Amino acid sequence: MSNQVWGLNGKSVLVTGASRGIGRSIAIALGEAGANVSLTYTGSSENSEKNAREVCELVEKAGGKALALALDLSNTEQIKDTVDQAFKHFGGLDGLVNNAGIVIDQLALRYKEDDFSKLMDVNVKGTFFVCKAALRYLGKSGMGSIVNMSSVVALSGSAGQAPYAASKAAIIAMSKSLAREMAPRNLRVNVIAPGYIDTDMTSFMEEGQKEALLERIPLKRVGKPEDIANGVLYLLSPLSSYVSGQLLNINGGLYM
After folding, report:
1. What is the dihedral of CA 5, 7, 11, 12, to 10 degrees?
2. What is the Cα–Cα distance from 97 to 11, expressed in whole angstroms?
3. In degrees rounded to 5, what are phi and psi of residue 124?
4. Would residue 68 count as lying in a domain?
5. Contact, 198 vs 224, CB < 8 A?
6. CA-to-CA distance for 98 and 133, rounded, in angstroms?
7. Nearest 5°: phi and psi at 80?
8. Euclidean distance between the first and final Cα of the chain, in Å?
9. Structural domains of the chain, count
10. Which of 121, 108, 234, 230 is nearest to 161 (CA)?
11. Which residue of the set 41, 137, 164, 196 is catalytic?
């Protein structure tokens, strides 16, 4: 789809967790739409920085502009500094995609308190404070839009993922509340809940598990990162100007 259709040409968007997987596809899709993309990576290894630089090259090859920024979502001061850098580099901020998150799976009886705290710090606290840091800039835009990433398990539940599901359900409630709070400033907030998407986070599944999963998905396929990216572009664009506080399920019919 051309960048004229999306209406994002020249707009500036911050995408967290964009060095691989779904975030990578979102960043590249924004580049194809002509957007300026600030993308964050964990900065925990040389490999993550290398991946982020490669995504920047792909964004620019697609037609956009890109900036890679290291970000530790458990560090609120670093969150503020990163959002400030994104705003200053491109001279504005029109959209935010909170894609970054972690998964720590374990049965409830074996779950460690430190793992619970780490999960909530990144997925819930991190998402909130990125939103908070971006709100003052997004409110100045005539089309400010936030897209937060949840998960199908926030709605359906999943054995061995109680804390993760809780963190993703919290993002839905948080987003709906922010949508009401920011509506007077013409700033929209929406959520996407992906189903099972073909990324590194789902690659651990054994063949038997994948076959059993496909039996439960009406469309009979695992999703592609591009499926999520298309939903993000819609929610960031003027095409969804009357959409706020909503949850978009992209899961092949796994949960209806």
Report:
1. -70
2. 13
3. -100, -60
4. yes
5. yes
6. 12
7. -60, -45
8. 27
9. 1
10. 108
11. 164
How many residues are given for the chain?
256
The CA–CA distances, whole Å, from 106 to 22, 74, 100, 162, 202 equal 23, 21, 20, 8, 15
Neighbours of 237 (CB within 10 A): 19
Per-residue pLDDT of 138-197, as tens digits, reads 988 777 999 999 999 999 999 999 999 999 999 999 999 999 999 999 999 999 999 999
Q: Which two tokens stand for residue 192?
A: 């996407």
Residue 36 phi/psi, 5° resolution? -95, 120
Question: Which pTM does this prediction carry?
Answer: 0.95
CATH number at residue 147: 3.40.50.720
CA–CA separation, 152 and 137 (whole Å): 30
Contact (CB, 8 A) for 83 and 130: yes
Contact 19, 51 (CB under 8 A): yes
Which residue type, as a one-letter code, is found at position 50? Answer: K
Tokens of 123: 């997925």
* Local confidence band at 203 (pLDDT 50, 70, 90 cut-offs): low
Q: What is the pLDDT of residues 25-65, one digit of tens each?
A: 999 999 999 999 999 999 777 899 999 999 999 999 999 99
Whether 110 is in a domain gets the answer yes
Catalytic status, residue 164:
yes
Maximum distance among all alpha carbons in the chain? 52
Q: How far is CA 251 from CA 61, 99, 106, 157, in A?
A: 30, 16, 23, 14
Sheet holding 65-70, edge to edge: 65-70, 36-41, 12-15, 95-98, 145-149, 188-194, 247-250
Quote the CA–CA distance of 28 and 109 in Å, as a whole number.
Answer: 41
What is the domain range of residue 27? Answer: 12-246
